[in-house]
Amino acid sequence: MKSIVIPKAGPPSILQNADKPIPEPSGSEIRIKVEAAGLNFADIMARKGLYPDAPSFPTTMGYEVAGVVDKTGPDATELLNKRVVAFTRFNSQQEYAVTPKSYTFVIPDSLSFIDAASILVVYTTAWVLIYEMGGLRKDQTVLIQNAGGSVGLAAIDIALHLGAKTIGTASGRKHDFLKSHGLHHAIDYRTENVRNRVLAITEGKGVDLIIDPIGGKEWNVNYSLLKKTGRLGMFGASSLSDLGEMNIISKAFAFLNFLFNMPKWSPLKLMDDNKGVFGVNLGHMFDMLEEYRGAIQGILDGVESGWVRPVVDSVFAFEDVGAAHQYMEDRKNTGKIILVPTKESASSWKKQA
């Protein structure tokens, strides 16, 4: 079978399409004939050698797939031939993927494989950030950093579903789309002072919740924008991604600078400020997915009822994975990037207006 392989750390051109044996399911595992696989920023970091959770090189990444179950272990036969979407712990950006049935959700015929593969990771991450740990409620205000990213768009849907007010940062070219998607206030982080704009929008009060995938000095700015009882949720450090393009000396200095600019929150300061900070790493929550089955099923059902609106920016064939990585790394996408096994599948996809 065709499999996307990262042989060693390097630029997008390092990615390969390799031939690997088709995996076999056992026990309560299922095997999916992959029709669509999600691309996430963790894949970019892994390719650069900056993602500590990634398997050793050579490796195949991937956290989510959609397709048809073509084979099962003896304890999962009820899922044979079902259309499904599933979480995977790597090894899913390939033509066949094996995963436990507990990570798997049956999808209706009305939901395309491409849309299904765009939902699991980003909406579950956003749900934990916004609702489970962020505690956002009706009429509260959330600042969504990188609102044009796939998690950002999912966060907008969830915040609006909860009746909250939304502020988002994104490059100016994405603002019209974000406003059409329901974002109340858009800030161009490239040309505007984010802190001043947020304070102006909130009349100096600050916000109840901030979710941030950027990291570094942004965490200090975000913390200063929280009102009392406000919460800062961190789910990435994409500002580190440029380290992968540097030589080893520049990389060391840049990383030290990143560490130096990281905030040093103490329990006493948090108590005095009446603020909270937390982090989310979905890759470290796979042992809890059973606890979230109800919420995840609710999200999938939300597509039918209309409050979940998956946004797929683009679809790339496996053989064009280098271009997909570059596209994401250049921050060109508004929404999810999906990988499909063949050029025919990629070319037949039509982006919704």
TrEMBL record:
Positions of the Enoyl reductase (ER) domain: 10-339
InterPro entries the UniProt entry points to: ADH-like_N (IPR013154), ER (IPR020843), GroES-like_sf (IPR011032), NAD(P)-bd_dom_sf (IPR036291), SV-ATPase_mito-regulator (IPR052100)
Keywords noted in UniProt: Oxidoreductase
Region entry Disordered, spans: 1-22
MF term (GO), any: oxidoreductase activity
Domain of life: Eukaryota
Residues forming coiled coils: none
Pfam families for this protein: ADH_N, ADH_zinc_N_2
Family matches, as PANTHER family: SYNAPTIC VESICLE MEMBRANE PROTEIN VAT-1 HOMOLOG, SYNAPTIC VESICLE MEMBRANE PROTEIN VAT-1 HOMOLOG-LIKE
Name this polypeptide is given: Enoyl reductase (ER) domain-containing protein
Species assigned in the record: Boothiomyces macroporosus
